[in-house]
């Protein structure tokens, strides 16, 4: 193979130059590098907001590559077809990529690897989208962890390699293969009215992500342990948006957290533990992929969840008009910003699965539609945790009371007042922007009175507890 045969770097949800082992290794070969992004069935299957956010991220990353004298070639179709055709067209010596761990990607990547090997081309995948490879953290018996705390105890003894710098050069090939235009993919098509409303909340790309991490470590991490549960306070890193598309690597976050810990900043260890929750989600998804699609605990299979999306309660929940302010505030925050505070994710999830006795899959799918930080593993684990059907889940009989939770975690009502417009003399701009984002056919207006609860807090709790009786949980 000639030295000028290029290396193709297949870019997926790893839209960064630094701490990108595949780009780094490709650059180190001294060969020309051809970065490629493929719009395949997994991209087409994304929900509206994550697909739109991916499009913004890809566009931004293409510009970062252009600033280095490189390019991002865009192609669509099944990855195996696109890559084998590209290898033939360019005479590439190898294809490198960063590993993904969801079953759809694993299946696809296994086929790609086999096809490339058949062509006699080097096919290499690299670690770096997680801190610890999911198979590397094992129980003493060689199994996987089903409970977070022992997982954390085992994981924290593992080394996390120092992040790699961005490659110095990404030599261009003599001629670039043809690519498609991102505009023609219409990745934002389903966002309709929402895009203009969500856009100001987006922090796009690697530099912005590094800025977020820097600001968090400089001014928020010290109080993080106390403040991270208060949705009215800007007390968390907000890095999930960037982590979900790999605009920052978990190792970069981890090492920044470690340094903060060494500097004696309280809260830094809690931050590391939260990063480890992300790892735990991937650990669980890798070892028990059914967490994405069915009750992780077998005993929940017979539970009679409501699964009908047409139910009035489900519509009210999705449209953030359940009549429970803390719940509606969270769902509105998500619709307007593409994100939702972790505490409130638990409250809205509990209300859907317990007060309304609806299947967690309805919530999982709605979050997948609306979140710009959507992550398959964290979303599935979060929903199964809330519902009680997952490993290390919230006990089934723990029904969050959204009223007392609001009193405890939003005592001055800063959060609910920010997101609920109805009944207020001068609603906040954020609360009003919800009505600009939602479809007009929902028929909602800030001028309407705030709705009565679809299911009252006590009544829903009692109903849930009686539904759980004699189910053998
Ligand atoms: C029902 C439900 C659904 C969820 N869906 C998602 C999702 O689609 N995408 C997503 O990234 N997170 C999800 N989470 C986890 C959590 O809510 C978010 O990661 C967190 O709110 C992100 O905000 P932050 O970046 O400011 O977090 P920080 O508090 O600053 O934490 C730092 C990082 O740690 C990780 N992290 C923190 N908490 C968790 C957690 N409970 N589980 C897994 N990782 C965590 C995230 O990567 C986060 O960016 C979900 C939680 C629940 C209860």
Automatic annotation (TrEMBL):
Question: Which GO terms of the molecular function aspect are on file?
Answer: deoxyribodipyrimidine photo-lyase activity
- Tell me the InterPro entries matching this sequence: Crypto/Photolyase_FAD-like_sf, Crypto/Photolyase_N_sf, Cryptochr/Photolyase_FAD-bd, Cryptochrome/DNA_photolyase_1, DNA_photolyase_N, Rossmann-like_a/b/a_fold
Cross-referenced SUPFAM superfamilies: Cryptochrome/photolyase FAD-binding domain (SSF48173), Cryptochrome/photolyase, N-terminal domain (SSF52425)
Obligatory cofactor(s):
FAD; (6R)-5,10-methylene-5,6,7,8-tetrahydrofolate
**Enzyme Commission number(s) of this protein:** 4.1.99.3
Q: Which UniProt keywords apply?
A: Chromophore, FAD, Flavoprotein, Lyase
Residue ranges annotated for the Photolyase/cryptochrome alpha/beta domain, each copy included: 5-131
Q: Which Pfam families match?
A: DNA_photolyase, FAD_binding_7
The family annotation for this protein states: Belongs to the DNA photolyase family.
Which PANTHER family does the UniProt entry name for this protein?
Answer: CRYPTOCHROME (PTHR11455), CRYPTOCHROME CIRCADIAN CLOCK 5 ISOFORM X1 (PTHR11455:SF9)
The name of this protein is Deoxyribodipyrimidine photo-lyase
Species this protein is from:
Tropicibacter oceani
């Amino acid at each position: 193979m000639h030295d000028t045969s290029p290396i193709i770097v297949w870019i997926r949800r790893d839209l960064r130059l630094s701490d990108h082992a595949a780009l780094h290794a490709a650059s180190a070969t001294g060969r020309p590098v051809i970065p490629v992004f493929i719009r395949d069935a997994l991209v087409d299957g994304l929900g509206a907001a994550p697909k739109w956010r991916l499009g913004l991220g890809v566009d931004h990353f293409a510009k970062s590559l252009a600033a280095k004298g490189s390019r991002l070639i865009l192609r669509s179709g099944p990855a195996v077809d696109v890559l084998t055709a590209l290898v033939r067209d360019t005479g590439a010596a190898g294809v490198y990529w960063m590993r993904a761990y969801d079953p759809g990607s694993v299946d696809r990547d296994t086929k790609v690897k086999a096809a490339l090997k058949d062509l006699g081309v080097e096919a290499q995948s690299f670690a770096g989208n997680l801190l610890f490879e999911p198979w590397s953290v094992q129980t003493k018996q060689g199994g996987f962890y089903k409970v977070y705390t022992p997982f954390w105890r085992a994981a924290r003894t593992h080394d996390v390699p120092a992040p790699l710098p961005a490659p110095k050069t990404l030599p261009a090939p003599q001629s670039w293969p043809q690519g498609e235009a991102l505009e023609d993919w219409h990745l934002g098509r389903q966002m309709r009215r929402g895009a203009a409303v969500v856009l100001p909340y987006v922090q796009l790309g690697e530099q912005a992500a590094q800025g977020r991490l820097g600001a968090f470590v400089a001014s928020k991490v010290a109080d993080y342990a106390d403040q991270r549960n208060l949705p009215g306070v800007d007390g968390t890193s907000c890095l999930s948006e960037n982590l979900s598309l790999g605009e920052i690597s978990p190792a970069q976050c981890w090492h920044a957290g470690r340094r903060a810990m060494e500097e004696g900043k309280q809260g830094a260890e809690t931050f590391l533990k939260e990063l480890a929750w992300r790892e735990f989600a991937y650990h669980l998804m890798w070892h028990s992929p059914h967490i994405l699609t069915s009750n992780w605990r077998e005993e929940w299979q017979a539970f009679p969840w409501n699964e009908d999306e047409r139910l009035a309660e489900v519509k009210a929940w999705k449209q953030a008009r359940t009549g429970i302010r803390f719940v509606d505030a969270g769902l509105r925050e998500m619709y307007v910003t593409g994100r939702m505070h972790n505490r409130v994710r638990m409250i809205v999830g509990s209300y859907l699965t317990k007060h309304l006795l609806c299947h967690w899959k309805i919530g999982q799918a709605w979050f997948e539609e609306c979140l710009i930080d959507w992550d398959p593993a964290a979303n599935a684990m979060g929903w199964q945790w809330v519902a009680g059907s997952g490993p290390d889940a919230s006990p089934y009989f723990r029904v969050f009371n959204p009223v007392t939770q609001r009193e405890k975690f939003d005592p001055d009502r800063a959060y609910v007042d920010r997101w609920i417009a109805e009944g207020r003399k001068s609603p906040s701009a954020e609360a009003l922007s919800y009505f600009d984002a939602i479809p007009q056919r929902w028929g909602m207006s800030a001028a309407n009175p705030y709705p009565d609860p679809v299911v009252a807090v006590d009544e829903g709790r009692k109903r849930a507890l009686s539904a759980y009786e004699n189910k053998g949980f």
